[in-house]
Structure formats: C-alpha cells, structure tokens
Design goal:
six-stranded antiparallel β-barrel, seven-stranded mixed sheet, Elongation Factor Tu (Ef-tu), domain 3, about 35% strand
Length: about 290
C-alpha cells in the first residue's frame, strides 16, 4: 500500500494522446519521484494565477512519472455529453499548464493490481477492460514485467474514435459507441462478442461506474468474483482517508463495513464491493453524493 511523499516536480513533457486528453511527464526538482505501480495514483497540486489557493486532484499513473488527464468530468460517470461539467483542475492542466511549470505531487498512494498476488499468480490469462481514460492504468499494467508469461488481452472503449487511447505495443481491441472504429457499441458489447475467455482467468477493470458494473457482471460468467479486480477511480478529496468523500459502504451479515477508495483501494475485488453503494452513487467535487440514474 503506497503511503506517498510530497515532492516538488517540474513538468518535463506534455502530449495530447486523444481528444481532450493529455499525458504529462514529471521529474522531481530534488531527489526522485517514488516508484509507482500499476493501479496506484497520486495527488497533483497545481496553482493557476486565477485561483486564490492551489488545488489538488487525484490522477492515475500511466507510467513511471506519467499521468494521463482528461479535461471532461461527468457527474453521472457517463461518456462526455451535454451533461458533462469541465473540471477546473483538469481543464487547467490540459489547456494552460506548460512544460517547465512546477507542481506538487504526493505519491504513490493506494494499492495496485499486483498487491493481489494470489489471484494474479494463479492465472494464465489476464483480460484488461477499460473505458475512456480508464485504459491508461491498464496499459501500464499490461506492459509490466509481471505480465510477461501470461496471456494478456486489452479491451478498450470510448464514445468515438478520437477519444480512444491507443498503444501500438499492446494493440488493444477497440469498441466505439458511434461505430467509428472497432466494434460498434460499448466495451461490454465487445466482451460479449468476443466470448472466448478462459475459465478462472483474471479480469482487471477501470473506467466509469456504469461500465465497471456491467463489465464485472459479464466477467462473472467466466471467473470467480474474487478474480475480478476493479480500479474504482472514484472522486477523492484528500487521498489520505480523512475527508471520506470516496467512502464505500458494504453490508455483510447485517453489519456495515466502510472502506475508503484512497486508502483501502483504489483496487478492490469485485466480491468486496459487489453489494456496496459504490455503483449507486457518484461523489461530485463538492463532496455531495448523487444517485446514478438507472
């Protein structure tokens, strides 16, 4: 479990990787950035001249010292549409943060996919299913040396071709909602069409909540819920389990168990959160919880 340290960093690279999405690269101003593992995240603090105080937000790592950031934020956890609200911090990073600028990074935080060694080591095949920017930490996972001796297949979905995250090395299988590339439909539709999953394999999922729930239920046809690992990537206020904005409640045998995605996750077994309120509510930037429309 990553506890994270604060480190002043300088932006050393910025690349637009798809529509409204950039990958930023960072280097420590003094010392080195602690090694992050696939699934972990960091709290990035930036300061715009237009703000009174610096603001921090959590972002997943897409490589060592790399974060992939999308400007759009949807309170419903759905693909970018008329209900999308642009996040202040992500908008600033995508549009205004420049190479050479300074920021503050607290990392690495949370657990990673490889903390679930029993599930990972016992699987010959690993299937990675990502929606939108959720593909970034999965690509990082798939290229880890731990995966070298495993069958590894990546499914990636987005609303349209321009929003797909690509990786020439992995050659993921794509789905787009408008049919502009790959299978027409969602990434879950793509899973259903593929249907050749090996029994008792491991599934790694990352993306919007609606996708996570449907993809996890589809994966249950082929494996045990303990072997479905979900990167929750929910909204986090502090990254240290204090603000409880990323709280997840699970009821077992009449007893309520509370998790924080930032300190107990962000990666959970689907069996741990299947009966939780994680899939029912979305936490917005104010900290309020809104029920996700069915």
């Amino acid at each position: 479990m990553g506890r994270g340290i604060q480190n002043a960093v300088r932006i050393t690279g910025k690349e637009q990787v798809c529509y409204e999405t950039v990958r930023i690269r960072m280097a420590s101003v003094s010392g080195v950035i602690r090694v992050s593992r696939p699934g972990q995240f960091g709290m990035l603090t930036v300061k715009s001249p237009d703000w009174e105080t610096p603001l921090q937000r959590p972002f997943s790592f897409s490589g060592q010292g790399d974060m992939t950031i999308r400007v759009a934020y949807s309170e419903q956890g759905l693909p970018c549409d008329k209900r999308t609200v642009a996040g202040k911090v992500s908008s600033y990073i995508v549009n205004d943060l420049e190479v050479g600028n300074l920021a503050l990074l607290t990392a690495p935080l949370g657990n990673c996919f490889f903390d679930f060694r029993a599930e990972m080591d016992g699987a010959d095949a690993v299937y990675l299913v990502g929606g939108g920017c959720g593909a970034a930490p999965l690509y990082y996972t798939a290229k880890s040396s731990v995966m070298l001796n495993k069958k590894c297949l990546v499914f990636s979905g987005a609303k349209t071709k321009s929003a797909l995250l690509r990786d020439e090395e992995l050659k993921p299988v794509f789905a787009t909602k408008d049919g502009s590339e790959g299978e027409k439909g969602t990434v879950v539709d793509l899973m259903k069409k593929y249907g050749k999953f090996e029994k008792d394999s491991v599934f790694l999922l990352c993306g919007p909540k609606a996708m996570l729930k449907c993809a996890a239920e589809e994966a249950r046809k082929y494996t045990n819920p303990d072997k479905i690992l979900v990167d929750t990537e929910t909204y986090m206020g502090c990254g240290r389990g204090v603000c409880n904005k990323c709280g997840i409640s699970v009821k077992r045998d009449g007893v309520i168990h509370s998790y924080n995605a930032c300190t107990d996750g962000p990666v959970f077994r689907y069996s741990d959160i299947r009966g939780s309120d994680f899939f029912e509510f979305e936490t917005v930037r104010s900290g309020a919880r809104k029920r996700i429309p069915i």
